[in-house]
Each structure stands twice: as structure tokens, then as C-alpha cells.
Amino acid sequence: MAKKTTPVKDGGKKSFEERLERLEALGEKIRKTDIPLDEALKAFEEGIRLARGLESDLGKIENRIEILMNSADAPLSESPELELFDDEK
């Protein structure tokens, strides 16, 4: 299964899992007491952006699953559109 990607500053793409790992790392970093306040604030701001993006992606996935579960009568020849999981090209 392909991973959801989101553009990043370097022009590359990061998967959902990579962004989640980054969020977890930021949380660990913020919990440390020996980092400067400005560095902790930057990490917090990045974490908020990541959390919002991940939450949005999860909402899309949940909506798609709900549609698929409720459309059991749909013909099997129809293939669901899962743009969230498109392969990187």
C-alpha cells in the first residue's frame, strides 16, 4: 500500500508515518528541560502544524472508510478513489 505524502521544504515528500515519527520526536524534545525556550517554541510550532496535517489526513481516511462501508451495494467493478494513498511518481 502506498503512503500519503505531503510536500516539505526540500521539495521531497514525507509519508504519514514519517510525519508521525517527527511529531513524536518533537514531543520528546520539548519534554527535555535543557533546551532553550526559543528552540522549544519552534519545535512546538512545528508539532502543531504536523498534528493538524495528520488530523486532517485521518479525517479524510475515516470519511473514505465510512463511504466504502456504507456502499456495500456498489458494483464491484467500481474501484474506490484513494488519492491519499497514491504512489509517488
State the main characteristics.
89 residues, mainly alpha, two-stranded antiparallel ribbon, 2 strands, elongated
Your description of this structure?
With 89 residues, the chain is mostly helical. It has a domain at 12-67. The chain contains two helices and two strands. The chain has helices at 16-31, 37-70; strands spanning 5-7, 13-15. The protein has a two-stranded antiparallel sheet. β1 and β2 (13-15) form a beta hairpin. α1 runs antiparallel to α2. The chain is elongated and about 60 Å long.
| Number of helical segments with 4 or more residues | 2
- Tertiary shape: elongated
Number of strands: 2
The helix-and-strand class reads mainly alpha
Order of helices and strands: EEHH
Strand order of the largest sheet: 1-2
Quick recap of the structure?
With 89 residues, the protein is mainly alpha-helical. The protein is built from 2 helices and 2 strands. The protein has a domain at 12-67.
Spell out the blueprint of helices and strands.
Blueprint: E1 5-7, E2 13-15, H1 16-31, H2 37-70
Antiparallel strand pairs: 1-2
Helix pairs in contact: 1-2
